[in-house]
């Protein structure tokens, strides 16, 4: 229905009225500034004080102060007020932006958590909680922030730091290049007060190089790099059979080889279970007889070898020996299928370069998890994506460290002090600990703080299954969601978790008697799924147990004080990796100049 002439003219008058109000908002203060500044300049130069005529002062200052020079009048009545007004405008813009209303990225969203909603994650509460959890901080009046919790970011649009405490367990789901390493992994490692464990599939320009030098100043640095991602010198070896002297321990170790080779939905079939069982029995035999783990590959190659059977019987594992004998003496086609499956799981042990990291080495120190968890050392566990058996060893080592930390916490009265930080970056690729979701239920209460970083929710489902990933998600007291969530189902799930809020809706009706306006309320998603997908880089959603979802501004390490020194150290470490790689691939020459 076309608008009436009356309605059109009314809209025009409203528009002109707004323009008039805006103009008055500029002209009135500017004219008063001109009159005030002009009189101050006249008084300072010995001239008469002009009467109250602000409009004249702005338009014709020479009429009010005829005795003053043109330069004095121009400076006092024109330039100074203009500068003052611009300064006020700039201050207003800065204040506007500081409180989150400036750009699209920092615009506050109604319905998300305020500082009051996340009070338990702010400085005062986390400091008080840290004192209650850590006896070593009882007499410390102002403990450093890193001693009280892991920095997640700033509450958006403010300078209030949001931290997870040292009893929280966290999952971060962030796409590549969304700040998961620069804003979560690196800052948390740099500030950690106790031992640190990091798993990663990268070295140059990553958390490894960014933190290597700083952590070397905090304690000893251990690097396990069986696939030579960082081309690190083999300055340690670790015995995976140390925890395999029981059937449960051997089963856990075999489970890491299984998880590294097949997805969660394939681990329950006959061949996978049988192959894992036979591998566990052979690992148990090697561990009980204090043999290197590489002996298992020889037994897998020759099923008729009775050595593992004799070892198991000698150490009292008669039932296990009977099962092993039954498999060996069973139908050849079944036996060969089971053994071939187990051979595939343990294939990485055939690689001499990988095996060297897990067998005794002369003049190379042994990494002992029980000693590590009582230190301030750092362990870097590096493996390539899809590393098969190599990633199994990485997962087994990380699992061994967390179990040693649990045992130490029990001996220390229940908790580690200082706590241990376990940053499981790229966990779904290089650290597939099958029962990690179950461990989440008690690690935080032991002072063991896991931060599992994934690229997507579905990536976790692929490794731990739908039930396992749901269990980890539910057990996590802190959940961080970064940019790049392209899964519509997961984005909608997050949107529902954030909830709805009331939005006022204004409706206007016009008639011959005039215009009437009414306001009604309707429910609307605080953050719809498309808005979650479009989260800007540098921001993240934080879900904490019992609190409203909060929007965070991430704090990348390179924007913090001291970043120049860290960047220089990171560049030097990256260059050292490149130099070691080139040295390995440069042909050596013999004494006659011939390439060796």
UniProtKB/TrEMBL annotation:
It is a multi-pass membrane protein. InterPro entries: P-loop_NTPase (IPR027417), T4SS-coupling_protein (IPR051539), TraG-D_C (IPR032689). It is found in: Cell membrane. Residues 132-152, 501-521 are annotated as: Disordered. The keyword Membrane applies. The chain crosses the membrane at residues 15-35, 73-96. SUPFAM superfamilies: P-loop containing nucleoside triphosphate hydrolases. Its main location: membrane. This is TraM recognition domain-containing protein. It comes from Streptomyces hazeniae.
